[in-house]
């Protein structure tokens, strides 16, 4: 008689890593993250986001603002700042830019842990291009980022739901995506893009337990972090 046992569910790691330790892992302190991604073209923010950030910003008044999370080298931000000299553009990255060239007017590149950092203003556009893959408590970051938007601003970030796990290692993507949609987010499964229009206060019904930095490759083919939640 054939044994028709079902595939085993993913097992939780023996020890989850807290976020203050997570930043020390090479998969998170990624010195190649967004290093070569430019504003337009093949390897660009325009392609990854599905729209041109500079064009979007030009429709938000004379002094638009853009916050890019996990900004890497900030090449796209440099180009946008040159096109929009009146814009306020901020990039935040754990490793920070390696280039030591002068920044265009209006651009600030900050080296900081996004789990600890908060801006002193609100932004018309907030982006996180493939950056959430390396964040432990990514739901907390999304909650906070929602409050950093202007009233008609746009938040857009890549999200891999398969890396959201229950305490036993099982898939938590359905309840998390349902809660995000209830909070006003839209998720495009085809493009793995999560978006929110309009700043607001959000509290998601999940308790963060820790992260697994050895989760392996995600849909991009690159190693990422799995985040564990109780609900």
Write down how many β-strands occur, each being a DSSP E stretch of 2 or more residues.
10
Tertiary shape: globular
Tally of structural domains: 1
Provide the low-confidence segments as ranges.
1-7
User: Would you give the CATH topology?
Assistant: Rossmann fold
CATH architectural label: 3-Layer(aba) Sandwich
Order of the strands making up the biggest sheet:
3-2-1-4-5-8-7
Mean pLDDT: 92
Sheet of most strands = 7 strands, mixed
Q: What's the N-to-C terminus distance?
A: 40 Å
Tell me the name of the CATH homologous superfamily.
Vaccinia Virus protein VP39
**Tally of contiguous helical segments:** 6
Spatial extent as radius of gyration: 18 Å
